[in-house]
Amino acid sequence: MDCKQAVSLMHNLLDDDLERSCALDLKEHMLACPACRERFRQLEETEQLLYGFNHRLQPTTDELTERIMSVIPKPKKQSAMFKWVRRHPAITVAAVFVLVMMTSALSMWNADKQLLVKGQQLDGVVIQDNKVIVPNGKVVKGDLTIHNGLAEVYGEVEGNVTVVDGKVYQASTAHITGSVQQIDEAMSWIWYQISSLFPGNATAP
Amino acid sequence: MDTLEKRLAMLARKGDTSAFAEIVELYKDKIFHLAYRMLSNRHEAEDVVQDTFLRVYRNLDRYDENQKFSTWIYRIGTNLCIDRLRKRKPSYSLDAEMNDQEGVDGYSMIPSDDRTPETYLLVSETQRMIHEAIDSLPAKYKSVMVLRYLQDMSLQEISDVLNMPVTTIKTRVHRGREFLRKKLERKI
Ligand SMILES: [Zn+2]
């Protein structure tokens, strides 16, 4: 066994992953090789120092918990609207209403296939072909709604991002305070239309 | 032990915010310690904790119940730390010394004015040296060494968290150990 092999076995030994026969070979080599004995001593010491490195970190504050809880999106209440419909005897009225909504929403959905961007404040946003880019470092205040396009978020959006018939790409630098929704199909679009009539009651399934 | 977290995760998935708050309480210190060891900066570590939980919340639907919850959350936290380390300016490179087959990555060392009061709590010279030695490890070795020695994970657990073969983890532990041995030579 040469010293290089010996060092490799030392590491396996420290990993608790060395067969007995190999361990005996290593021992034999170390008995005859002062350099490897010293190397092993140093490696063992290093391990001990690392395991003993228990300098106490201050625990995190309750403030951090509050900060986390304040940035997570509001919980979904998916079944609220169904419950509402079930609880009300005027179910036929609701059914007719949904039917009317479906017809009008479908025609709206079919009507436009062009890129459409909606938002309260869009000066930070870059538009390239069918791409809507929120660059790194830029902050968009308010909701961002995009139809028939690709949203690429590198910066910050202080609101919800909704993409209808398109995709949302979030870089690791992205920060979206509201919810992110992708609506790809006619049915979802209808649902979105209905739920936006009842703010707080329902969101897309 | 993991079933509590799984149950909480299922509740949070259905919109139970208080269940999610319990997950935050269970893991915020663990993720903070991981992030602090990785980044040596309290402010950045707190940001990573916040980002980790935000990502956990957004991806609750994608959490696979066959996986340990802790593995999942550690993976998210570790990846966020590695991302941050990679974005730092490379003022210190060890690639010549520590190249392995997967190519070049990982820089560390932060300017000294970035250090937080935490560093002053390192009372002894030895503690300061260990802290600096760990801090100077390149990202890919640092994550493995921090998980192994400061979070007490087995090689298998680290392999699950980082989604890499155990053999790769072993190689990195060996190199990380040699690196630290050299750094701590004066002390040992
Ligand atoms: Zn030798």
Can you describe this structure in just a few lines?
The complex is a heterodimer of chains A (205) and B (188). By secondary structure, chain A is α/β, with parallel strands linked by helices. Chain A has 7 helices and 11 strands.
Structure description:
The complex is a heterodimer of chains A (205) and B (188). Chain A is an alpha/beta fold and 205 residues long. Chain A folds into 3 domains: 3-71; 80-109; 113-197, no CATH class. Chain A has 7 helices and 11 strands. Chain A has a 4-stranded mixed beta sheet. A 4-stranded mixed beta sheet of chain A has the order 2-3-6-9, with no helix packed on it. In chain A, strand 2 (126-128) and strand 3 form a beta hairpin. Chain A is elongated. By secondary structure, chain B is mostly helical. Chain B folds into 2 domains: 1-91, RNA polymerase sigma factor, region 2, helix turn helix motif (Rna Polymerase Sigma Factor, Chain: A), CATH 1.10.1740; 110-188, Winged helix-like DNA-binding domain superfamily/Winged helix DNA-binding domain (Arc Repressor Mutant, subunit A, Orthogonal Bundle). Chain B has helices at 2-13, 17-39, 42-58, 69-87, 95-98, 125-135, 139-150, 155-162, 166-183. In chain B, helix 2 (17-39) crosses helix 4 and helix 3 packs across helix 4 (69-87). The chains are: A alpha/beta (205), B mainly alpha (188). The A-B interface holds A 8, 11, 14-15, 17, 41-43, 45-47, 49-51, 53, 55-60, 64-65, 67-69, 71-73, 75-78, 172, 180 and B 15-17, 20-21, 24-25, 28-29, 32-33, 36, 46, 49-50, 53-54, 57-58, 80, 83, 118, 121-123, 126-127, 130-131, 134, 145, 149-150, 155, 170, 173-174, 177-178, 180-181, 184-185, 187-188. The structure holds zinc ion (ZN). Zinc ion is lined by residues 3, 6, 29, 33, 35-36 of chain A.
